[in-house]
Amino acid sequence: MSFFKFVGTAGARFVVMKQLRASGGSWLSTGETNLCIDPGPGALVRCLHSKPTLDPSCLSAILLTHRHLDHSADVNVMIEAMTEGGMKRRGILFAPQDALEEDPVVLRYLRKNLERIEILRENKTYQVGDLSFSTAKRHHHGVETYGANFNVKDRLVSMITDTRFFNELPDLYPGEILILHVVRLKPIGDDPIDHLSVEDAKVIIRKVRPRLAVLTHFGMTMIRAKPWKVAAEMENELGIKVIAASDGLKIDLEEV
Ligand SMILES: [Zn+2]
Q: Whole-model pTM?
């Protein structure tokens, strides 16, 4: 059974620091291949305490969309767990170049325990087991950041990770299941952190017309507005199924 599980749904600093939502990233499984996406603070603990347990020693790969702490804080301990404390040389790490070079978020001494590291670049396709995914254009997010289009058994799952809105964005992520990192309730013109707002998400969903849109990675303004209410209003307005992820939400990809 293939699924996408939201281990954590926190985005931005305060929600992560106060753990108003968990910040463990996501887990994508084809049933055969397991991918950990953006293991933020607490990812290992959340995976192990998940019901049923998400066992990191069963991971095929880890994907870092970018080096920011809320996406990468647990990457080293997840590598350690995936490689069974370095006893087994296994697993792939997909990461942008700037997560690995100056001031790297991936410890150098752990890298030799990985089967390999693949550098994320624009418009490239990657394969791990029976899962393939493609990057699109680099996001507008300060550090090097890529979203992904995952091919899971004839299903296209698009994940728009952190970015400022730009005009081509909807065309880059045509998934039937569309996951959006919506940090802000309202747009802030000169936002130095470069995140999507609800208004941006509406523009994207309207254009992509997915079978299901899932909002996640919430900042404080979204938490205060109650993400499930925001999603319900969007669904009403757009006539497209929109839900807000909660910590531990599991989407069965074959049932959407
Ligand atoms: Zn983030």
A: 0.97
